[in-house]
Design brief:
Length: 139
């Protein structure tokens, strides 16, 4: 009888530990998703300001776009420093990264901006994936 009670207690404790672990992981993920959302909204605002001042969106690779926003562009004769809220995280290459450390993707249309993060799994997924975790923000 004691062995059964000990086994039941062990199962309950393991179950509680698993629930707490899931809760902690979800809280961390939710905080990073909120950070991405805030950072991407600030970046969209900065890119719109850049366009208003320069007459066009920045062009080139993510590194060149990052340089253009920080006033270090080598394109054209004007330089502009766009200050966006918060600190924009960058990797050692100078690319803007998401909260998981993956370089983001930025797409421009005539008047719109789309910012994409690979999300928690750090992999950009296509429509074949049943449960993608990529994140998007647009203007």
């Amino acid at each position: 009888m004691k062995k059964i009670i000990i086994s039941v207690i062990a199962v309950v404790l393991i179950g509680m530990a698993a629930i707490i672990a899931v809760f902690v992981i979800r809280q961390r993920t939710d905080a990073k998703i909120a950070k991405f959302t805030q950072d991407a909204d600030n970046l969209v605002l900065g890119l719109q300001q850049y366009r208003e001042f320069m007459g066009h969106f920045p062009t080139g690779s993510l590194i060149e776009i990052s340089k253009a926003l920080s006033g270090r562009s080598t394109q054209g004769d004007k330089a502009v420093l766009i200050v966006v809220g918060g600190k924009t995280e960058m990797n050692t290459k100078g690319e803007i990264v998401d909260p998981w450390g993956t370089p983001i993707q930025i797409f421009f249309s005539q008047n719109g901006i789309l910012i994409r993060s690979a999300g928690p799994n750090k992999i950009f997924e296509d429509t074949k994936v049943l449960k993608p975790d990529d994140l998007y923000r647009s203007s």
